[in-house]
Amino acid sequence: MRFIQKVVEKPLMVIIIIILSLAIGIFAIASNASLETNLNKYMPSTHPAFVYSDEIEELFGIEDMIVIALEHPTSIYNESTLTKIRDITLNIPIQFSEIEEDSITSLYTADNIVGSSWGLEVEPFYTYDVPTAQQELQSLKEKVVSNEMIYGRNVSIDNTSSLIIIELNPNVDAKSFQKSLTNYLKQWEGPETIYIAGRPVVEGALAELGPADMIRMFPIVVIVMVVVLLFLLKSVRDTILNMVIVLIGTVSAFGSMALFKVPVYAVDTMIPVMLIAIGVAYGIHMHNAIHNAVLENPNIEKRALINKVLKSMIRPVSMAALTTAIGFSSLMSSQVLPVRYFGLFSSIGVIVEMILALILFPVSIQLLGIPKKKSLSKVKESKYLHFMQKRGLWSTIVLRKSSIIVILAVIVATFGIIGTQKVWIDTSFLANFEDDSDVVKTENFVNSKFGGTSSLNVIIDTDEPDSLKNPALLKAISDMQADVISNEYVGSSFALTDFIKRMNKVMHDNDVEMEVIPDNQDLIAQYLLLYEFSGDPKTLESVIDYDYQTANVTFQLKSDSSAVMEQIISIVEQHKDNFASLGASVGYAGNGYKAFVFSELLLEGQIISLLLSFVIVAILLTLLFKNILVGLIGVIPIAITAAINFGVMGLFNIPLSSATALISSIAVGIGVDYAIHLIEHYRNRRLEGYSIIRATITSIYNTGRAIIYNAIAVMGGFAVLIFSVFPPNRQVGALVVLNMATSALGTLSILLVALIALDVKGKFINKATIIKTEKHSLQEAINK
Q1: pLDDT computed for residue 39 by the predictor
Q2: CA dihedral 180, 182, 187, 189 (to 10 degrees)
Q3: CA angle, corner 413, sides to 410 and 418, nearest 5?
Q4: Fewest Cβ atoms closer than 10 Å to its Cβ: which of 38, 125, 473, 584?
Q5: Which of 2-11, 350-359, 769-778 has the lowest mean pLDDT?
Q6: Which phi and psi (to 5°) does residue 507 adopt?
Q7: Which of 99, 77, 206, 205 is nearest to 151 (CA)?
Q8: CA 120 vs CA 105, 126, 460, 526, 542: distances in Å
Q9: Is the Cβ–Cβ distance between 198 and 64 less than 8 Å?
Q10: Nearest CA-CA partner of 248 in 238, 259, 240
Q11: What does pLDDT average to over the chain?
């Protein structure tokens, strides 16, 4: 406190430091800030699942893919469309130096495995000389339709669309490439429609929308908060002070990220809204303390007012900020990087806002004088005394109907717990977009016409070379493929088995019944040897390693939802015992699997951080009030709030995502502020000799009013998220509004009831320090 008093006595120095800090933060943001949308960067690289996946991706050359779909109104089997497929395939490596020629696959480059009098041959579907005659075009169509490795994968079942697939190596800037590619492909449209899909495209769209959304949201939330504060505080001066505090707090959070070269993730777009909502809370309590102090002593001098306000507020405000920061810091226990960094840098912003609130409000008194008396009129004072005498409806309910409050709290908590059981996890990138957005429409088109833009790589691993030429093991893989592809979300599969079945079929004069795995291992080995001589070895290298010990089975999925991925993995798991009996193990790799692991880590981190924050908050409240029972009852409102939050998510089918996973920590961080301010005010009044009744009434009128103002301000700030372009952010806004209302109501009801019950039993404050006025009438207590 002495340090802050000394700082307050040098207002000019405070202003200079603030301006310099703001300038440094803005410069750091402008120089180093970057948005990260690559899902691989969201995950800890040392996690065993990711380490294994990276090794497999390198072994089989699994890369991110951009998918170009050409759709013709009637059929792709015409000279113009086939020429465009050829020219786009050939020209992209020329136009874009970062793309290698052999990284593009299309109908023009695809291999067609056929049987001949010479044995097995691999030939292109068509050459540079595009077929023009109707008979040639019909022959090409028949080749495609009869080739199960191409039909439905590279060419749609209705023959109106065809894919060009571009594999991107990690060194390619996917976001800038897909943007340039989009512009380049416009020249090829008509009558064909060209679609561009794939995860890099989604990431690129996020990279554009994220900053734009943040820039658009920031002024909206500022305007809303200014209006709300002017309405609540009726003070231009205090409104400006609040906005200065939250502006600097926001800049400090993002400036720290930039200085430490931590990228901005999609969830970080909520930080400005959150810090603005939190920061005004400290300002509201400082405003409330200043005006109440002047109300009690209209003739108080500046220095005395500053000392009185700091003495009464430095403890609750600093502890409220500390518990909020710790609530956010508990997110650092998560292995999901965006969540971890969100917690860390939000904590920095909160601490900065707390320090500024404790300094700037006293500095404003020092520079501008005591707030004008017109806001502290006799009318207001008479209303205060009238409230004290009549007790008020809420005070009556808390003091006389406590059992009803307890019953209602139990019912609400039970409702929340029931709903919590229905909460599901989803880390879909597409969920960040509206259903009618171009990105989603494109993905839906490609998913409807082809196998899907998402994938899961199932790895079959053995200990001995040539094990994957064993007919029994190959049949087990084929059985697994058939089982998995029966799922509605699986569009296609691709594995070594598809090559072997195709070769066996064409070597038996295209007999459909021979599209099976041969029982003879030597025959399988011969097929593979023939293909290696005739075909493109790179194609085979994508499904099997050199020693035939490890196989890659790729499933194309029509959804990037982690819930769908869980379904597919559960089907694969049912085949693990069969593979084990054949000496093979099953593993998973690829971006689809990484997203699934990401969702598991998200849930695990949420549970750990939530429990950790409850424990830490309870310990801090215990230490603050030197009473373990106070520490325990202090978490009751936020525990009920968390239960309601997850209950509503479960009942309204709102998934737990990287955005909504943060809500409980936000609710704990902000909600505990209410508990600290209420308990502190009630405690101080009791130590001053107030009866339980009078301490309750004054706590509701003074601190209760500040809590309500605080909750309204926070709800107003987060309600702005309904204007976000990201659906998860809108869900966060609605849920936080609900959480703040629940937390404020719970603090002023069930927490206060528990506090009174504790006090009545003499377990809150040492009995020797309390003047026993409980037996006096309410009027006698007030007159005292």
Answers
A1: 64
A2: 170
A3: 125
A4: 38
A5: 769-778
A6: -80, -5
A7: 77
A8: 22, 18, 27, 10, 20
A9: yes
A10: 240
A11: 84
Confidence label for 375 from pLDDT (cuts 50, 70 and 90): very low
How does pLDDT run across 276-312, given as a tens digit for each residue? 777 888 888 888 888 888 887 888 888 898 888 888 8
Tokens 């970080």 belong to residue: 268
Identify whether the C-beta of residue 280 lies closer than 8 Å to the C-beta of residue 673: no
Q: What kind of architecture, by CATH, is found in domain 1-32+234-375? A: Up-down Bundle (1.20)
| Local structure of residue 155 (DSSP, 8 states) | B
* CATH topology for the 377-421+627-784 domain: Multidrug efflux transporter AcrB transmembrane fold (1.20.1640)
> Which pLDDT score is estimated for 24?
78
Minimum mean pLDDT range among 31-40, 273-282, 437-446: 31-40
**Which residues are within 8 A (CB) of 715 and not within 5 positions of it... i.e. 6 or more apart?**
736, 737, 740, 741
Per residue in 171-186, pLDDT (tens digit) is: 777 777 878 888 899 9
Every domain of the chain and the residues it spans: 1-32+234-375, 48-204, 377-421+627-784, 438-596
What integer pLDDT is reported at residue 524 of this predicted model? 94
Report residue 642 as tokens: 């968390």
The C-alpha angle 407, 408, 414, rounded to 5 degrees, equals 90
Q: How would you list the strands of the sheet with 161-168, edge to edge?
A: 104-106, 161-168, 64-71, 193-197
**CA separation (Å) from 46 to 40, 169, 333, 334, 710?**
12, 21, 15, 14, 42
Does the pLDDT of residue 771 top 50, yes or no? no
